[in-house]
Design goal:
- By secondary structure, the chain is α/β, with parallel strands linked by helices.
- Among the domains are: 2-234; 518-611, Arc Repressor Mutant, subunit A.
- Helix content is 39%, strand content 15%.
- It contains 25 helices and 24 strands.
- The longest helix is centred in the N-terminal third of the chain and has 22 residues, at 109-130.
- It is globular and about 85 Å long.
């Protein structure tokens, strides 16, 4: 059987598709019957097409804007609605008004939409000419409408072609909703598909029934959708390493190859060990597969060695939702010993020790997403993060010490939060000028599968599918209730007026970071010399003479209560309280939620993320 696995826009241009590259290996290794399985990366083809069709006017920056910003507004899906519905500029006026109300710029989306039908027609004809028996679309985020548009046109050109969709957009109940509403999609696979896809190929070969394929949506004789129970989560060691050979071949042949810096994608773990105990209230990741599983460290090392050797790429994006803490003992020390210059992007938990941060750097984990989210301990408690605000600040300081880039956003809009929760933090934000600011400040989304979604009593009692879906699908609300991932609800937490105050404070922080430093050095006599060069603060040097005061400041390198730090430093609580008050006035400590942490770094950091 001839099988083609397709990754549509808007997968990032610099990374191959992990699901496509993994399923191709799985099909080759596990199927009892040999199949001809190929990959097709039409996100690259789309970027090439836009460049040529517009004489270079639409390039990679315009593509990336849709992929990274437009994702929150359905922009990438809307661009392909003319191809799906065979209608030029489908609901254009309504969509433009929708974006305008949200202050989102259109970018090149209107011009892109004018080219989507021709692109889909061209690709459909090419694929139909190849006469594949089965086409599988991997759909995540904004890949739904592009995939549906191409599937519909291929089905019209070659009705005998079997078409299946899978991926994050097809988790239950979203996948069955796609199957019900788009008759040209023959099958939908929900859940983790490493074994189910093999079983599905066996079904097509006549070796089992459709009802025996876990997670499969299929049509009964009366054309109604039947959805099988999902497959059990596979152990990670049973999942092979992806094979990106076809993606790199496509990139090498692409006229835009010189503008793309490729990165490998790797998955060492699935699920979230923190989420198994306390799911962050706003988080809808993992869907129905929260159970945490990770690969053995030795297997990770073997896979990474194979991928790096084969593709000669050292930048690696780990798609794990959270770092396995066992890897601090088993994997990272081994990575640190290698003579490779690996650069990882990894999601971690924020309550890491400085020794852990040091190890991350040595192992090549130089870009991290630690889930900081907020600097109010009360708000962090509301979202069930299991971390104190001073731990978040300590992480920012420690990453500054070790030249690790931190990727985070300041989230707000949680049920039960108050302006007072933010006021105490905003008052101290200028003191953090030398630490990495959030990339932005964002009101939280209501996501399917999150505790906020599953438990309306937490605060979001009224909800409806997000307005973006009205501009993307020609479906009624009942169907969108099952198909949507994002939902709209009345705002909770701080109001829109105070929201502006928060956003303004974050913007100010972003503007001063590169010009700011605050460094503490220990002199031979144990005196502390603090050199303050933060934007917005008077440039000055401050000495904390050797003795109890300097010892108190050292104790605050890790978050402490004032009373606890005072005992360790041999000071009375009153004396310590007076010193901390003075240091807080000078912006040398962060004091929140009953705990205090010092802010100076031990050395001036490299401020350019490109050098980290």
């Amino acid at each position: 059987m001839k099988v083609l696995l397709v990754s549509m826009p808007w997968n990032l241009l610099e990374t191959p598709s992990l699901p496509v590259a993994t399923l191709r290996v799985v099909a080759a290794q596990r199927c009892g019957v040999a199949h001809e399985v190929g990959d097709r990366y039409l996100n690259l083809a789309w970027a090439e097409y836009l460049r040529d069709a517009t004489d270079g006017h639409i390039g990679i920056p315009e593509y990336d804007y849709v992929a990274n910003v437009g994702v929150w507004h359905g922009m990438g899906d809307w661009i392909f609605t003319p191809a799906l519905y065979d209608t030029p500029e489908w609901r254009r006026d309504r969509y433009e008004a929708y974006l305008a109300r949200r202050g989102v710029r259109l970018g090149a989306s209107l011009e892109m939409a004018r080219h989507s039908r021709a692109f889909i027609e061209m690709q459909a004809e090419r694929i139909a000419d190849e006469a594949p028996d089965l086409i599988g679309f991997s759909s995540t985020f904004q890949q739904n409408v592009p995939s549906l548009a191409l599937a519909k046109r291929i089905k019209a050109l070659r009705p005998e072609t079997t078409i299946i969709m899978g991926g994050g957009n097809c988790d239950m109940p979203m996948g069955p909703a796609i199957h019900r509403n788009f008759s040209f999609i023959d099958y939908v696979m929900s859940g983790e598909a490493e074994q189910s896809f093999v079983d599905f190929l066996d079904y097509l070969h006549g070796e089992r029934s459709a009802s025996a394929v876990r997670g499969l949506s299929w049509r009964a004789p009366d054309r109604t959708t039947v959805t099988n129970p999902p497959a059990p989560s596979p152990a990670m060691h049973t999942i092979p390493a992806p094979d990106y050979t076809e993606w790199f071949a496509a990139l090498a042949a692409s006229p835009i190859r010189d503008a793309i810096r490729p990165r490998l994608v790797y998955e060492a773990a699935r699920g979230c060990w923190w989420g198994e105990k306390h799911t962050c209230t706003f988080c809808g990741l993992n869907g129905l597969t929260m159970k945490f599983r990770s690969r053995p460290a030795e297997q990770v090392l073997t896979h990474l060695h194979e991928l790096v050797e084969r593709h000669r790429v050292l930048d690696i994006v780990a798609v794990d939702n959270i770092l396995d803490m066992e890897y601090l003992r088993t994997l990272l020390p081994r990575l640190a010993e290698l003579d490779w210059d690996l650069h990882f992007y990894y999601e971690v938990k924020a309550n890491l020790r400085e020794d852990d941060i040091r190890l991350l750097r040595r192992a090549g984990l130089v870009h991290i997403q630690p889930g900081i989210e907020n600097l109010s301990s009360r708000v962090l408690s509301i979202m069930d993060k299991g971390v104190h605000a001073t731990q978040n600040v300590k992480l920012l300081r420690d990453c500054e010490n070790h030249d690790i880039t931190v990727d985070w956003n300041y989230l707000y809009g949680f049920p039960g939060e108050t302006e007072d929760d933010y006021a105490i933090v905003l008052r101290q934000l200028p003191a953090l000028a030398h630490l990495q600011p959030p990339g932005g400040s964002v009101r939280i989304l209501l996501e399917r599968y999150s505790p906020h979604f599953e438990r309306p009593e937490l605060g979001f009692r009224e909800r409806r599918p997000a307005a973006l879906y009205d501009h993307v699908y020609d479906l009624d609300r009942e169907q969108l209730e099952d198909l949507a991932y994002q939902f709209d609800a009345p705002h909770c937490g701080i109001g829109t007026d105070y929201e502006g105050t928060v956003r303004s404070a974050i913007t100010s922080w972003q503007q001063v970071y590169l010009a700011s430093s605050l460094v503490a050095r220990e002199l031979p006599d144990r005196t502390l010399l603090i050199e303050d060069r933060r934007a917005g603060w008077p440039a000055h040097d401050l000495k904390i003479e050797a003795g109890p005061a300097a010892e108190l400041f050292r104790r605050l390198h890790t978050p402490h209560t004032i009373a606890g730090a005072a005992r360790a430093a041999g000071l009375t609580p009153e004396a310590a309280d007076e010193l901390v008050g003075e240091w807080e006035r000078l912006g040398l400590v962060f004091h929140e939620g009953g705990r205090v942490v010092s802010l100076p770094t031990r050395r001036a950091s490299i401020k350019s993320a490109n050098d980290r």
